[in-house]
Structures are given as structure tokens and as C-alpha cells.
Amino acid sequence: MNICILSIVLFFSFSSSYSQIVKGKVTCDNEAVPFANVIIHDKKIGTLTDSEGFFILENVPVGSRNLIVSALNMIEKEVLIEVGLDENYINIEMLPSIFDLDQVVLTGTKNPKKKINSPIIVNIINSKKLQNIQACNLAEGLNFQSGLRVENDCQTCNYTQLRMNGLPGGYSQILINGKAIFSPLTGLYGMDHIPVNMIDRIEIVHGGGSALYGSSAVGGVVNIFTKIPTKNGNSLGYNFNSINKKSTDRILYANSTILSKNNKTGFTIYINNRQRQPYDHNNDNFSEISKINGNFFGLNLFSNLNQNSKIELNIGSLSEYRYGGEIVETPAYIAMQAEERQHRVLIGNLDYQLYFNNQKSSLDLYLAAQNTKRDHYTGVRPELGSIEDANHLLNPPYGSSLNLTQQAGFQLNHKMATGIGSNLISFGSEYIYDDVRDEINTYNYLIDQNVYSLGTFVQSDWNVFEKINLLCGIRIDNHSLLDNIILSPRVSFLYKIKSNTQMRFSYSTGFRAPQAFDADMHISFAGGGISRISLSENLKEENSRSISSSINYDKFSINNSFGFTFQTFYTRLNNVFFYDPQGMDEFGELYIKRNGDGAIVQGMTLEFRANIISKLVFDSGFTYQISKYDSPINYSLELPSLTDFLRTPEKYAYATLDYKLNENFNFSANLIYTGPMILIHMSGSPEQISDEYFITDKFNVLGIKASYLKKINEMTYEFSLGIKNLTNSYQNNFDSSKNRDSNFVYGPSSPRIFYFSINFISL
């Protein structure tokens, strides 16, 4: 982005007591900034810029006035202007908030609040960052945040899960526009399903979040905000990826936004088509990266009914075919080993917002739902010509899944004066219903569960003084799988040591209900059969207590900025879930999900950010953690028990760099570091004759990208070339053949990828 310089041109004659009109335009990088707040601070006179960035302030007294301009993703500016008797016209060129410090966030408190003023640390991954790292979907973007690591957990179907501060995927709550409709079944492949062109930003909150979001918000919360209409425009893009010169991954996407003339109503449409070929790394004709054919359609619509009310509608529809295993042209059950998935997902939410009582109170009513239909095959073909093979061909292990998640709720907010500062009181309640049925008749495998929960919360967000904020809240949950009521309190404290330095402390709790379907209950291959997990009787909920503290510092100047955040975290888990091996039956390995004693997850994160002469932007994060069970866990009947968490490195980090050479050329680079971790490798393949623990190597994954951007009239053309995993740092010891352990997969999700992209944008 070009150097953004604040320049003010004032035409005045002499000071007077008369009132005048002040006109102007707000821009950034020579482009209009719509819907910016423009305020004369001392006189409390304000307005919004229109869609072209223009504004008019009336009845402004002549003389020296403090003008404050603020906008989404921009650094707030306060400038002294001289209002004269002649025409007053002001050009304001703003600086972008590279690191989103001034951005309004929602996830930490369920209310709009500037990130810098939030007592809860909320990290942001914006659309610009997703573009720079050339992420194709949600899963590829989440690695670039401290404490987050996305891992591929299946060699055959490539399902992914998110680990927050070392905790597996089931400990994190994923939201879409603040709604908990990202169901456990959807979560197996859902992070691959959400395309980047649908995402406006991602907000991440670490630590126990059950005080606001109920079950599963133990490790933290990831909130995905879809794109909203802001200005008219269209875009069309195409990405071509060459996977190690063997396979291709093609993505075609488009967005279109239309606003009414008065900007009170608008909608955005986004579509995405993906065609990925299977990739075989070790040349055994079994894929390490699955085939994908997918289509996604989404619609976001809003309407300002009047100045005090607004309605929003978000709808998304997905159809995806996924195949992994032996690469054949025949039906899946003919292959020696294969997984086949056909997903059809419909997801949406409806919000109504009302402001009243002179803007001191607000009401939010919402409905949300997600419906998933899945046809699937998971099978290993027996020895050819055997009786078992004949039975397999007559009754192949096809299955079906149905999942319906519904949510309805409200939130009432009231801001009140307390004598000391001000307090925003929030009260809300929501009902969540989840119905899942997953069946494979051949394996006598059936999950049929209806789960509902009713949660009610109250929260106090008290600005005690200018430098002190105290956040307190509690939620009560009545969950159908639990005999007792769950109380989830939270206390957070913010102290602004200086204007650029903040200190935070938080105590929070969380819980995780023993639902039947979870990210880690995926049916997988091991030892020539399939592994299956069932629930033990009288399974209790997990509960947690988390403590975190942090300090962050940011220094800004006109051309440069830098800052850092240091955070510590400690989480105590009780009644922790683990998987107890039970031996084998005729179909494969059996496990039971049980309650253990407990576990402790603790560590620290360090983030550093810098913006040099508004051309070079650097962002990095490092995480160190230790995760241990209180008592040793039995992972295999053949191996000694361990207190270590599997698949949990003690150290991992990321770094991104973006350098703008000039108006047309941009260069970016990114790095992901993953330290060693412990895995279990099950026997069965020719390479593995017995179960064993395995310590992985460390991995460094480097990506580079060069872009050329050209603006011609109202059309922008962008061309990009790049390489993901430049050094081809990839697992080199995959199991082969049909009896492979598909869970023995680690490291980067893909080998070296060469890509180019083309994007056309019209405004």
C-alpha cells in the first residue's frame, strides 16, 4: 500500500464566532473511505462519509477545532483545523490499521468494542492476510496466529482439526457470524469447506469461553465473519496450483456486491468452484492428498429498516465430493482401500438488531441453522477371491449421515452510568439443538443422538476509569447429556498503563459435553481394518479452569509502527476424555472414550509486529507449551502408557512479511515452524510390523509470492505467482498399501506447490 500521509488543506480568512460549513473527503491510498466517522470533538458535531468518502459538517464554530476521523481498519486520526469564514474544505488521507488495533471486535464480549479497549485479547486474521499467504480455505489461514495449529489427521481423506494452545479440535468452538452452527459432524471437513472469498475476517479468543458460548469453548473460540456489503463492485478470480508437478488444484471464484442508492440495503453474492486431483507421494498408487470436487454459493443481505434497526441474512450452500485411497477409476468398494465422501451442506442465520432508549439500549434476536447430508464409504477390501471378499462385494460398507443443528436466541444490552465510569450490562439466552445420525450397516456402526442445551448468561462490562476495565460474567447451561446444571463464570481485567501499553488478566472456565460425534471420533484405517470409537457408560463432562495474563505495547509514528504482545496461559482439565484400546473384532481396532483424572496445559506466546515506512509489514508469533496428563494414558495394548499429549509439539511459530515495492508490485513471504512431537504408529503396513511411538522431525515451511496490480479506469487487474513449501519440507515415511495406518500423517499438509492467480476487480 502506498505511503498514506495525512494532509489538510484549509482556506480561511480570520477567526470569528460565526458558524460555518466544513466539507471534505476521506481517502486512504488515494481511494475513498466510505462510512468513516468525522467528529468535531469539543462541540460533539459529527457525521459519516458517504460511499464516495465525502462528508459535510454544519454549524461548526469558527476557530481552532479538533477533528477526529475513524473508520474500520484505519488508524484513528485527530487533527487541529482552523475554521474560517470562507469555504472550508479538508482532504484527509488516513493510515491503514495494519495490525487491526483500532478495529472493532465482537467475539470477546459479544458486543462491538475496539480491540485495544477489550479486556479479552482478540486476535484477527483479515482478508488481506489470507490473500497474502494465498490461502484457499479456512484451514490454510488459521496457522498464521499464535497458539493455533491446523493439522491433517488422515492420510486417506485429509480431514483437518484445529489445535488451540495444544488442545485437540473438540476443545475449540468454531462460530460463523457469532453462531454455534459449526456442528461436530461438519467440523470434520468444515474448515476445508469454507472458501477464502467468503471470509471478511476471523476473530480468535484463547482460553475458556463457556461463559458466553457454552459447551466446547475450552481451548478458545474461532469466529468467522462473512463478507458484508460495503460498496458496489464485482470480482472474478482463478487460482491454479501444481502439487509437486504431479497433480493440480484449480479454484474459480467470484464476488458481487450491490447497494441501493441510499446505502440502506445491499447484498453480496460469492461463489467458489474447486477441482483437485489426487496426489500420490510415495508412488504406491494410494493417495496422500485426496481428490476434491466442490461448489460453494453464499449470500449476505442487509437492510437498515430505519435509523434504529437493521436486519441481516446470511446463507451458504455447499456440495463437495471427496475421494482418497487407492487411485482407481472403478467404484470405491472395488479399490483395495478407500474413503469416499459426498457432502451437501446448507447453512444460514438471520439477525435483527434494534437500538432504543436514546441508543443506550439494544436488542439482538437471531436464528441460525445448519443441515448436512453425507453419503460415505470407508472400506478395506479383503484378500481377493476369498469368502470375505465375496461378502464385501455383496455388501460393501457404504454409510449415510444426517445432521441438523439449530440455534435461536436473544441478547439485551443496556449502558448505564454508575457514578464511577459506565457499565454495559448484557443479558441473553439461547437454545441449541443438534441431531446427528451416522450409520454403516456392514460394520454394525451406528450413532443416533439428539442433543439440546439451553444457556442463559449475564455480563457486566464496566469501564471503571479511563484506564481500567472490569469484565465479569456467568452462564448457566442445562445440557441434555448432563445430569447437573453447569455454571461457567469469567472475570477479566484491563489496565492501560499508557496509551500504547495495556496489561490484561483473565480467569475463565469451560466445559465439554460427552457428545457422540466429535472431530477425534473419525473412522480411520489401521492394520488392515478400521478403527472405531464408542462412548463408555456414565461418561461425565470435562471441565476446565483457565488463567491468562498478557502485556502488549504498540508505538506509532507517521511512517513507522512496531509492537509486541506477551501472553501466558494455564489450563487445568478435570475428567479429561481419553481413548482406551479394547483390542480388535472382525472389522478392526476398537476404542472406548472414557474419563481420566485430569491434565494441565500451560505455556506462553510472543508476538512481534512492525510496519516500516508503510511499505514493509512484518508479523510473527511464537508459542511454547507443555501438555501433560495427571496419570499415564494407554494408547496401545502393546506399548507402555504415557502422560504426554500426542500430536502436540512444544514449540511452533509463524511469520509473515509483505513488501510493497511500488504502486504495481508487491512481494510477500511466510514461514510456519513446527517442532518435534510424539505420535503413535500402528502396525499393519509392510513398513511397520509392530506398534511404536514415533518422534517427528521439526518442519519449516516457507512460502513466497509476487504480485502485479494495475488499475485501468474502474478496473483493477492483479496477477500473482508463488511457491508454497519452497524447500519441499514434507513427510518422507508414509505407509504404503491397503493396510497402512492412515493416522500416521504429520508435518506440512502438502509438498511443494507452484501456483499462479488472476483476479479482476471492478468498482
Briefly characterize the structure.
By secondary structure, the protein is mainly beta.
What does this structure look like?
The protein has 763 residues and is mainly beta. It has three domains: 19-93, Sandwich (Immunoglobulin-like), CATH 2.60.40; 104-120 and 128-221, Ferric Hydroxamate Uptake Protein, Chain A, domain 1 (Beta Complex); 222-762, Beta Barrel (Maltoporin, Chain A), CATH 2.40.170. The chain is built from six helices and 45 strands. The strands form eight sheets. It has a 22-stranded antiparallel beta barrel. Strands 1, 2, 5 and 8 form a four-stranded mixed β-sheet that branches. Strands 4-3-6-7 form a four-stranded antiparallel β-sheet, with no helix packed on it.
What key attributes describe this structure?
Maltoporin, Chain A, 6 helices, 22-stranded antiparallel β-barrel, Ferric Hydroxamate Uptake Protein, Chain A, domain 1, mainly beta, 45 strands, 4-stranded mixed beta sheet, about 5% helix, Immunoglobulin-like, about 775 residues, disordered N terminus
Present the secondary structure layout.
Blueprint: E1 19-28, E2 31-32, E3 37-40, E4 45-48, E5 54-61, E6 63-70, E7 77-83, E8 88-93, E9 104-105, E10 113-114, E11 123-126, H1 127-132, H2 138-141, E12 148-152, E13 160-164, E14 172-176, H3 184-187, H4 190-193, E15 199-206, H5 210-213, E16 220-226, E17 233-243, E18 247-259, E19 265-276, E20 291-306, E21 309-325, E22 337-356, E23 361-380, H6 387-394, E24 398-419, E25 421-440, E26 445-465, E27 468-479, E28 486-498, E29 501-512, E30 524-526, E31 529-535, E32 542-556, E33 561-574, E34 577-585, E35 588-595, E36 598-612, E37 616-633, E38 642-644, E39 651-660, E40 665-674, E41 678-681, E42 692-695, E43 699-712, E44 715-724, E45 753-762
Parallel strand pairs: 1-8, 14-16, 31-35
Antiparallel strand pairs: 1-2, 1-5, 3-4, 3-6, 6-7, 9-10, 11-15, 12-13, 15-16, 17-18, 17-45, 18-19, 19-20, 20-21, 21-22, 22-23, 23-24, 24-25, 25-26, 26-27, 27-28, 28-29, 29-32, 30-31, 32-33, 33-36, 34-35, 36-37, 37-38, 37-39, 39-40, 40-43, 41-42, 43-44, 44-45
